[in-house]
User: Which sequence fits this backbone?
């Protein structure tokens, strides 16, 4: 059940209003992180524990491939923090990261999509455009004639993947670098979407 | 008079009224497939079972007649269990391919499954496979797997249209709905079976795959296909222009009106939507008729400029040659509002005497005793109410052609009528002799190119108004879509010219 809880504003006393104390507190946080990380990196140099995160490639992560096994939260906490120099260095993706879509195929290479339009219906960005036709296979009633996703509009919410009754669309390509020189080039058609299936 | 108790509520109803109707009246929906108010109550779907106090078994509400003192429950556990059980049996062989089924979103099985479904089926056997996607006529596609054998379609075809193209063959596990040997479902009312089929067994070949039911918006309208004026719903899909091949109207469905069309409409009316967005006029043009073989050269005008020019030019010619030389071609496609402004402009102000509005020969077609009428325009009666047909007579096309040849006519104002279609190749020659030709209509066509002014008007789905059907019944229709281009309703165009005409003569508006 939804209830409403009223939260009192913290009093804006003099100490808050002159900011000085708050600035010092903030600097304290910054310095704590600095020294904790410095200590961990020094320990690492001394050959004790791992110094920083290994490069993404070491755990199979790459911007174009799927990240296979990111380190767990505890392992990260014990390491010194590292800034990833993206895009010079490849980005590290979680295993469940939602990246550019692909359309899956049937064993014979035809698109698995039945053109039910559920993904198009659920899509909050209205960036999926599908038209349907009769399938030449008498056992299959309907198939997509055209299937387009406008990556420039997509908000990568993943609703389309959830909605699909036949698991025809997935967002597991690991591809999230989709810039183009023209808006039109950001619209991926069925052929392009099936390329990595 | 019968006093019954329905779900604890005392209700008064006529003796012998069907319980399913009584409940509907009282706002209680009893699930059903086979019962249809216009097609009878075979009682074969077993979905409408209700509990009657004192009766040893549940009774089908579609066959249960109200008797004084009856106590009925539609919501007892026994009823719910029976309905869930009946639904489970309906689903034994049902493919449940809702994602690809066109009925999805407006399906009787889906709806009842959500409310009274058992969710866990006890049926472990494989489903039976039968013909899917079988075209049974020009408009209807049959999927035998999805059929519930409610027999609504066969009863409609046997009892209403009396053509009996569909039948149920076999029994039990082998039961199947199919075409009768040697028949094709192509009667003038075939589309109605799609509406009455409670599931996706019969789907519309024209609507198939075009738009999902949940994208549609619906507006109440009146079919302009003939002088019957059947009630229709205009289903539009405008938010996703890549669907439905870019057409804005996705389908027309009958709207129940016991006084006019009952539950049905004819196929001609039903599929008239397809051309609504095709070949439309969108610009107000002044045309310079081109030499034969070349297309006319046009200058785009604002409405104001066009109205001024038309009022001015017609005024000059009338002063010069007399109003008797101006002929106006119109039709019963005008709404009552259009007819009113039509009369104000042409009769009251311009004093035109030569009118042509009779539907022959281009606006007549087949008729029958069910719905279709010979005059394929909706509102001849509305014109008649203002004197068009009584006080003002319609001339014939031949007489008009003779008058033009004899030089008695100098101008022609055509309202949505295919002059080139009626006169054929002679039309260009005849219109070429005139000083002043205006064409006003929603669609491109031969006539528009031969005019000096071409004015775009709205289609009936883009305006509101009213038609008077052949029995004199006035029916309103609502606006479903925005007009295309600069199109205006006919009455607004007439009023525009009239205002400029009066201003030009210094008359008060
Ligand atoms: S991820 Fe979300 S926004 Fe993108 S296509 Fe799928 S449903 Fe639409
Ligand atoms: S939900 Fe799946 S099957 Fe349906 S249209 Fe989208 S991709 Fe195709
Ligand atoms: S008829 Fe209804 S339940 Fe059956 S597949 Fe079609 S939508 Fe689904
Ligand atoms: S095709 Fe439809 S209307 Fe005809 S019997 Fe089957 S379910 Fe009923």
Assistant:
């Amino acid at each position: 059940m939804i209830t409403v809880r009223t939260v009192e504003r913290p009093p804006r006393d003099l100490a808050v209003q002159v900011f000085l104390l708050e600035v010092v507190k903030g600097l304290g946080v910054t310095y704590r992180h600095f020294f904790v990380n410095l200590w961990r990196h020094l320990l690492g140099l001394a050959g004790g524990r791992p110094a920083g995160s290994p490069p993404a490639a070491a755990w199979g992560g790459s911007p174009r491939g799927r990240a296979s096994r990111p380190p767990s939260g505890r392992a990260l906490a014990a390491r010194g923090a590292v800034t990833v120099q993206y895009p010079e260095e490849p980005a590290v993706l979680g295993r469940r990261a939602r990246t550019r879509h692909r359309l899956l195929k049937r064993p014979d290479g035809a698109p698995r999509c039945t053109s039910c339009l559920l993904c198009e219906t659920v899509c909050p960005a209205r960036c999926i455009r599908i038209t349907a036709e009769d399938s030449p296979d008498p056992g299959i009633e309907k198939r997509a004639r055209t299937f387009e996703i406008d990556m420039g509009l997509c908000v990568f919410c993943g609703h389309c993947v959830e909605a699909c009754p036949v698991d025809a669309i997935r967002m597991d390509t690991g591809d999230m670098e989709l810039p183009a020189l023209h808006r039109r080039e950001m619209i991926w058609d069925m052929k392009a979407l099936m390329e990595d299936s | 008079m019968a006093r019954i108790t329905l779900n604890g509520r005392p209700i008064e109803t006529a003796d012998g009224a069907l319980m399913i109707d009584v409940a509907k009246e009282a706002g209680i929906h009893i699930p059903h497939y086979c019962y249809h108010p216009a097609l009878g109550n075979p009682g074969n779907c077993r979905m409408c079972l209700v509990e009657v106090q004192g009766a040893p078994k549940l009774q089908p509400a579609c066959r249960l007649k109200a008797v004084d003192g009856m106590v009925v429950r539609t919501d007892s556990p026994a009823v719910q269990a029976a309905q869930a059980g009946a639904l489970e049996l309906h689903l034994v062989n049902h493919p449940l391919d809702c994602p690809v089924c066109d009925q999805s979103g407006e399906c009787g099985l889906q709806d009842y499954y959500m409310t009274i479904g058992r969710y866990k089926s006890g049926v472990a056997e494989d489903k039976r496979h039968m013909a899917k996607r079988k075209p049974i006529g020009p408009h209807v596609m049959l999927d035998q797997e999805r059929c519930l054998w409610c027999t609504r379609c066969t009863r409609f075809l046997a009892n209403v249209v009396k053509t009996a193209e569909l039948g149920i063959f076999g029994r039990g596990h082998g039961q199947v709905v199919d075409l009768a040997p040697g028949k094709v479902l192509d009667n003038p009312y075939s589309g109605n079976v799609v509406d009455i089929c409670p599931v996706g067994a019969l789907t519309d070949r024209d609507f198939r795959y075009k738009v999902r039911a949940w994208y549609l918006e619906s507006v109440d309208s009146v079919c302009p296909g003939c002088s019957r004026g059947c009630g229709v719903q205009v289903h539009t899909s405008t938010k996703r222009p890549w669907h439905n091949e870019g057409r804005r109207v996705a389908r027309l469905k009958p709207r129940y009106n016991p006084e006019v069309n009952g539950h049905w409409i004819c196929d001609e009316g039903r599929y008239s939507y397809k051309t609504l967005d095709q070949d439309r006029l969108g610009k107000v043009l002044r045309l310079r008729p081109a030499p034969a073989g070349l297309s006319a050269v046009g200058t785009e005008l604002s409405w104001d400029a066009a109205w001024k020019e038309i009022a001015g030019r017609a005024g000059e010619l009338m002063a010069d040659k007399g109003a008797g030389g101006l002929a106006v071609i119109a039709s019963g496609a005008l709404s009552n509002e259009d007819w009113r402004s039509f009369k104000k402009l042409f009769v009251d102000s311009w004093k035109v005497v030569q009118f042509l509005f009779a539907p022959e020969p281009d606006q007549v077609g087949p008729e029958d005793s069910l719905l279709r009428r010979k005059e394929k325009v909706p509102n001849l009666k509305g014109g008649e109410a203002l004197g068009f047909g009584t006080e003002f007579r319609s001339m014939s096309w031949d007489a008009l052609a003779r008058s033009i040849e004899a030089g008695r006519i100098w101008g022609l104002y055509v309202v949505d009528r295919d002059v080139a279609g009626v006169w054929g190749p002679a039309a260009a020659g005849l219109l070429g002799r005139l000083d002043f030709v205006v064409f006003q209509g929603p669609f491109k066509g031969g006539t528009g190119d031969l005019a000096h002014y071409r004015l775009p008007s709205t289609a009936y789905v883009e305006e509101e108004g009213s038609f008077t059907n052949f029995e004199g019944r006035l029916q309103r229709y609502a606006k479903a879509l925005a007009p295309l281009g600069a199109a205006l309703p006919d009455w607004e165009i007439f009023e525009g010219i009239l205002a400029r005409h009066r201003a030009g003569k210094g008359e008060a508006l």
